[in-house]
C-alpha cells in the first residue's frame, strides 16, 4: 500500500526539515473533509475555508461502493474507520426490479410471475450506507484544531504576480495564501467559475428534466402496503416516465422511499433546486400506474419537497485544473443522483490528489511551484473521463428506469444488460492502476516542465 508517511499522526506538527506544503481547501462538504484528511495524513498543512458558520450535512442517507472504501483506506485509514462506525452493508441480498405500471390488482403486483422483471445480486457495488451527517461529524472529529475556518466565502483568487502563493479572497474582505488550492465547493462552485473564466458554459449546472422526492416513513405502513415479501427487500419499480426505489432502513424500523419523475418543463430557478409539492401532485402524475405505486405514494406526508436534479452533463468542464488551482468532487463533475455514486467519484479524486501532492511535498521547495501545476494537470487528465462518464450515465440510467432510453425501451433483458455493465464499471475499478497511471503521467509531465 502506498502509505507514504507511516504512523504519522494526524496533526499540524512537522517533524521533518522540509517545510510542509500549504494547501487551501474551499468547502467543508464530504469531499473537502475527506481530501483534507488524506493530505494531513501525508504531513501537509491544510486549511478548509467554509462559507457557512458550521458543518451542515442533512440527515439523509448516502452509500459508498467498495471502490470508494478502498480509496478511503488509502487516503487515511481513519476515514474508513469513521465510515465503519456509522455505515452498514446492505442487508438485502438482491434488488428486485418490478413492473410498477402494468399490474392492475394488488395480487398481481405482489406476484413474481406477473410483475417481477428481473433481480440482481447486491454483489457488484457492495454499498455501505450511512447518514451523511453521522459520517461527516465523525470525520470532523479527526481534524486538528484550527483546520477549519467558518464564515469564509471565496469570491476570487489570484495567482502569480511575483508571489509563489495562490491567494484566496473572501467575501468579508480578507485574504489567505497557500501553495495550492483545491475547490471542493460543490455544484455551484465559485472556484470552478474562476478557474474556467467568466461566462464559461460549464460555470452553471443545467436541469436534467428529472425531479425527485424522498421520504423516510415508519416501516409498518410499508408492510401493510406491499406485503412482507416486497416490503422487506429493496424494490425498484420501473415504468413510463418515473421510477420508485424503496427499502427498509434503520434496522427495519423505517422505510426509505425515493421517487423520480420525468419533467418536460423548464425549472424556474436553478439556484433553488427545490420546490414545495404535495402528495396529491405526485399521485395525480402517477395515477395510471399500478396499485403498489399508489400505496407507496399514500405513505408520503401531505406536503413534500420536490427536488430538481441538476448536473454538468450538458456543459462538462474541459479541465479540472489550471496553474496551482483545481476542483474536485461535485465542483468538478456534479451529477444527478440516479447512480448514487457522485460522492464515490469525489473520493477517488481525493486519492489521486493526495498521492500526487504527497510526492510534490517530498521535493525541494524551489522545485515545487512548477511540479504543483504538473501534478494538478495530471490529476485532471487521469480523472476527467471516468467522472464525466458517470455524470452522463447517471442521466442514462434514469431514462432506462423510466422506459425512455432509446436502446432499451420496455425490454427488460436489455435494461438488465445496461444496469449490469454500468454497475460493473462503477464497482469493479482498479484503484492501483489509477494511482500507478497518475504517477507515470505526472513523472512525464514534471520532466518536460524541467527541460
Ligand atoms: C438525493 C441524492 C442522493 C445521493 N446519494 C449518493 C450516494 O448514495 N452515494 C454517492 O456516492 N453519492 C450520492 N449523491 C451525490 C453526493 O451527495 C455528492 O456527490 C456529494 O455530496 C458532493 O460532496 P462535495 O463535498 O463535493 O460538495 P458539497 O456537499 O456540495 O459541499 C460543498 C461545500 O462547499 C461550501 N461552499 C460552497 N461555495 C463556497 C464558497 N464560495 N466558499 C467557501 N465554501 C463554499 C458549501 O457550503 C458546502 O459545505 C447523492 C446526491 C443526491 C442529491
Ligand atoms: C479577481 O481578481 C482579479 C485580479 O485582481 C480581477 O482582475 C478580477 O476582476 C477579479 N474577479 C472577480 C470575479 O472579482
From TrEMBL:
Coiled-coil residue spans: none
InterPro entries per the UniProt record, alphabetical: FAD-bd (IPR002938), FAD/NAD-bd_sf (IPR036188), FAD_monoxygenase (IPR051104)
KW Ligase (keyword) present: no
Gene Ontology process terms (BP): secondary metabolite biosynthetic process
Cofactor(s) essential for the protein: FAD
Keywords (A to Z) from UniProt: FAD, Flavoprotein, Membrane, Monooxygenase, Oxidoreductase, Transmembrane, Transmembrane helix
Membrane in keyword set: yes
Membrane-spanning ranges: 23-41
GO terms of molecular function: FAD binding; monooxygenase activity
Domain FAD-binding: 21-392
UniProt family annotation: Belongs to the paxM FAD-dependent monooxygenase family.
Protein name: FAD-binding domain-containing protein
Organism (species): Cylindrodendrum hubeiense
